[in-house]
Design goal:
The structure holds 2 protein chains of 2 kinds.
Chain A (H helix, E strand, L loop, with lengths): L3 H4 L3 E14 L3 E14 L3 E5 L6 H9 L6 E6 L2 E2 L7 E4 L11 H11 L4 H14 L15 H14 L4 E5 L7 H18 L3 E5 L2 H7 L2 E5 L6 E6 L11 H15 L6 H4 L2
Parallel strand pairs in A: 3-8, 3-9, 6-7, 7-8
Antiparallel strand pairs in A: 1-2, 1-4, 4-5, 9-10
Helix pairs in contact in A: 3-4, 3-5, 4-5, 7-8
Chain B lengths: L1 H12 L5 H8 L3 H27 L11 H13 L11 H32 L1 H14 L8 H8 L3 H25 L3 H9 L4 H39 L4 H10 L3 H29 L1 H11 L1
Helix pairs in contact in B: 1-2, 4-12, 5-6, 5-8, 5-10, 7-8, 8-10, 9-10, 10-11, 10-12, 11-12
The chains are: A alpha/beta, B mainly alpha.
The complex binds adenosine-5'-triphosphate and magnesium ion.
């Protein structure tokens, strides 16, 4: 494919015919991802949606470099993904902050690993804490922060690395409905301020429609990506508006048309 | 009581004064904080009374089971008596120092080796395959079974005692260090790799801090075993220290001193454990707090 370079010059992330098969002694072969073709341009906010067990985390882990595909290509900026690193920063569902460090140090440790000088580190960490609205909590131990605040620190830590893609695997799953609603608005604000490229994994239709510029749906049983929906609704989006409900319905129908017995699982 | 809490609730709604009732609620009263300590004395107190009762009833001859008062007097003489009087008078400090330095040195060696061997064994798969089987083969051998070899290699005295202490406390320290490093929170290691840490930096900044709680478990177990082994060593092969005094007093039928020596050992073991716990609570403040949060 000689024309790829020009055609995909603005694609920051590209998966081509990606396969991931788990082999275990008792269950045999489990082909979780099959023939995944997926592309993202710089600055895009893509939501990856699908029912539990369809392979969302598997795909994200491959992009993050924690896992490897069994076949196909996964490229960032045209280069194959060779392992985890700061260019593919992940925000974990359980925050995964270092409990022996305070909020600022949790951000600085990443910059330290990039061998940034100390003074610049502190300045950068504080800037990103401010971005996520936690300037006052900089010196507090992270275990004393609420779940929502801890997730903000985790987002700040990832953003401070200035990654090419920001990977978020159900980052707000552990938060209550109110905190989650706040974090949705915050994330949209942060995305616009930083122009980060974000892949956001969820199994909530509402979350997908509120956040995504583009929603990509996955279904289980090795059928890969089933479809995608571009959402041009202006922001801020109102989850209680009729337009929002209509988009949600279209997304729901798009996904369920590919599902048979899984419908019940998905209609949360 | 209910009036008071209602009052506190009312005041808590007024932002300007909200801090006051919260603070009084959080700080336990002096009585409440003393109560656990007082309760803790009940059973030992009852035990002393029972002991005294058994002695007073003449169940055993007083030469074999002296009363608590006789033991207290013996302990006092051991600690503060005039050494000129001979016997055990005034030799306690010496005995503690003799045993204590052997424990400290042996324990320090065990700690250094246990951590130095445990960290690479837990961190590297190759080291694990090399070292694990050896440790698990040696560990079931009771340390007391090493006494004859220890006598051959290190002779009677200081070196042999230090060897036994070091050997005995080495195993819990090394095993818990290996466990801690190997079991370091998976997602924190993932984070380290994501942040670009490799090799030494991954170990130093991510894996080691995460393994510390387990390392401290090993350190506490090791300290407990140290005090067991110093007594074994001193009874078998050394002519000074608390263990030696204990055996010596037994051979002279001085059961008051035997029991006093037992109590001293208990106190020494307790105090050395407290020291480790104090260090731990500073080093692992985050861990304690995290566990407290997790319990809620
Ligand atoms: N390390 C592994 N070994 C074997 N099978 C695995 C492994 N990781 C995931 N799987 C399997 O892959 C499938 C997809 O898992 P994955 O975690 O990607 O789902 P998911 O879409 O993220 O689900 P959820 O919404 O519940 O997080 C599951 O059937 C799971 O059992
Ligand atoms: Mg998942």
């Amino acid at each position: 494919m000689p024309s790829n370079e020009t055609r995909d010059s603005d694609a920051i992330l590209r998966c081509e015919r990606l396969d991931r098969t788990f082999v275990s002694r008792d269950a045999g072969e489990n082909r979780v991802l099959q023939d995944i073709n997926f592309e993202m341009r710089k600055g895009e906010f893509v939501v990856l949606i699908g029912p539990s067990g369809c392979g969302k985390s598997t795909l994200l882990n491959i992009i993050a470099g924690f896992d490897r595909q069994t076949a196909g290509l996964a490229l960032i900026d045209g280069r194959p993904i060779a392992g985890p690193g700061p260019d593919k920063a992940m925000v974990f569902q359980d925050y995964a902050l270092l409990p022996w460090l305070n909020a600022r140090e949790n951000i600085e440790i990443g910059l330290k690993m990039q061998r940034m000088p100390a003074a610049q580190r502190t300045e950068t960490a504080l800037r990103f804490l401010e971005l996520v609205g936690l300037a006052e909590a900089a010196e507090r131990p992270v275990y004393k922060l609420s779940g929502g605040m801890q997730q903000r620190v985790s987002i700040a830590r990832a953003l401070a690395l200035e990654p090419k893609v920001l990977l978020m695997d159900e980052p707000f799953g552990a938060l209550d409905a109110f905190q989650r609603a706040i974090m949705h608005k915050e994330l949209v604000r942060i995305w616009r301020a930083t122009q980060a490229t974000i892949i956001f994994v969820t199994h909530s239709l509402e979350e997908a429609v509120f956040l995504g510029e583009r929603v990509v749906a996955m279904t289980p049983r090795a059928v890969g990506l089933t479809g995608e929906l571009r959402i041009d609704m202006p922001r801020p989006r109102d989850p209680l508006s009729p337009e929002f409900a209509a988009v949600k319905r279209r997304l729901f129908e798009m996904i369920t048309s590919h599902l048979t017995e899984e419908v019940a699982v998905f209609a949360e | 009581m209910s009036m008071k809490s209602a009052d506190a609730a009312l005041r808590a709604t007024a932002p300007a004064r909200a801090a006051a009732p919260v603070r009084t609620l959080a700080r336990p009263s002096l009585l409440a904080s003393l109560a656990p300590a007082l309760l803790g004395l009940v059973v030992p107190g009852a035990f002393l009374v029972l002991w005294w009762g058994v002695v007073a009833a003449g169940v055993f001859p007083p030469s074999v089971l002296p009363s608590p008062f006789t033991v207290a007097a013996a302990a006092f003489d051991w600690a503060f008596g005039d050494p000129q009087n001979g016997g055990y008078s005034g030799t306690l400090a010496q005995a503690i120092w003799a045993s204590g330095q052997r424990v400290l040195l042996g324990y320090a060696i065990a700690m250094a080796l246990g951590v130095a061997i445990g960290v690479p064994t837990g961190a590297s798969r190759l080291m694990g395959h090399l070292v694990d089987p050896f440790i698990h083969l040696l560990r079931p051998i009771p340390v007391t079974a090493w006494v004859p070899l220890s006598l051959v290699f290190f002779g009677f005295g200081f070196k042999g005692a230090v060897f036994l202490v070091a050997l005995g406390s080495f195993f819990p320290i090394v095993v818990n260090t290996i466990e801690g490093v190997r079991g370091a929170n998976r997602s924190l290691v993932k984070v380290g790799r994501m942040l670009g840490a490799r090799g030494w930096r991954l170990l130093w900044y991510f894996i080691l801090p995460a393994s510390l709680p387990s390392v401290f478990v090993g350190l506490r177990l090791g300290m407990g075993i140290s005090w067991v082994l110093i007594i074994v060593a001193e009874m078998m092969s050394v002519k000074s220290g608390i263990g030696y005094t204990l055996l010596d007093a037994y051979s002279f039928g001085r059961f008051d001193v035997v029991i006093a020596a037992m109590i001293v050992l208990g106190v020494m073991g307790f105090l050395s454990d407290r020291v480790i716990v104090a260090v731990q609570s500073v080093a692992l403040r985050w861990h304690r707090e995290v566990s407290i949060h997790a319990e809620q």
